[in-house]
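Hello again,

I reread your note about wanting to compare the complex against the isolated chains. To keep things tidy I'm splitting this into two emails, and this first one only covers the full assembly. Below are the input lines as submitted, including protein chains and any nucleic acid or small-molecule components. They are followed by the predicted structure of everything together. The single-chain runs will come separately.
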Amino acid sequence: MNAAAPAPQSARTVRAWEVLGTVLDPEVPALSVCDLGIVREVLPQGDAPDSLLEIVLTPTYSGCPATELIERQVLEAIAAAGLGPARVRLQRAPAWTTDWISEQGKRKLREYGIAPPGHLAAGDAVPVRFISRRSAAGPAIACPRCASTDTTQLSAFGSTACKSLYRCLACQEPFEYFKPI
Amino acid sequence: MQTSTSIQPSRDPAAQYVLRLADTCLILGQRLGEWCGHAPVLEEDIALTNTALDLIGQARALLTHVGQMDGQAHDEDQLAFLREERDYLNVTMVELPRGDFAFTVLRNAMVATFLKLAWQRLAGSLDTELAAIAGKAVKEARYHQQHAGDWVVRLGDGTPESRQRLDAALGQLWRYTPELFEDDAVDAHAAASGLGPRWSELQGPWRADMTLLLDEAGLALPTDSAFRSTGKRGLHSEHMGHILTEMQYLQRAYPGGVW
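Full-complex prediction:
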């Protein structure tokens, strides 16, 4: 981009969204930060082309160790694209939910071998229930490889805060499941 | 220049209310971190440390908020690492040594149930930053409660050995639970200002959840004793100094050191 030939404001915002669509989540590199739904807004703080561009991010988990890295990568990408001064603002409310992962993002997850999260009802709509082993039966999660729902949970927590570990009993392959929150 | 001199948080009741939550998350997170590399199976090693990560994330957000609330501009690291023992306001239960796996999962179930109920109410706080932190944390606490609760059921309904250990843990932990629900001036101020509920209001729903859980595990709620712990007023058990020594070592030895 040529800073001497500034694009009109709206084009700058559109371009910023395009650039953000190329910034990958460091822990789930199949998804961009836009697919993940953590980029909430791109707000130019004025009409001038060198006005501050505010990018609003909503973190996934309170303790997600990738948050600071994502902030840095977002700013680097905007700078590399010559889009002028930018800053990141973290916004907690409304809280991020896996329902914000785009349809494209869910498709990319499946292709990457991670079962996408199911649709989440309102936070407290599903009561916490403690189930004895005899009657244990969780929701059926489809294997991202063979689509069988004959799967079982191996571990409630996985390689990152947002995933748990499953195994497909049909194709015998283990896979990760993006937990709905 | 950075120093390792202790800081004193404000005595403002609103800041103290949030500090009680922050320190409860922080100290339990520190205790759970001790399981890293020591849990009975790999899956639970990951589960306990992931839970610790969420708790420390919640504590960071709360401590940052306290630093803004009390006007002294202390940051999260100063508040986490440079206070004296009596300025930590966590409930005593979370500072007790990690014990065995049964003790750990039962304590996690008790605290996650408490925090889930607290976050649900705090999501409606008039303090919008606290409400935002709660709106995020409640989802995490639910998952912690589910996971720890599943283990309580599994151990209670397991072998004679696992049941005996869970039963022993219940006996050790129960007397620390009344502290969670005892009100004082900090609660009264929070309720009057719309900051958050009196913690005593959480006792009914907490007992309901715990009754359901222990019933499924084949255990009954123990009877209450006259013992009262006082961590949330800054008067801790003998274990607190030791955990702080380990937590604070780096910041005291290398003031202002960052990751």
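For quick reference: Chain A touches chain B through 29 residues (CB under 8 Å).

B.
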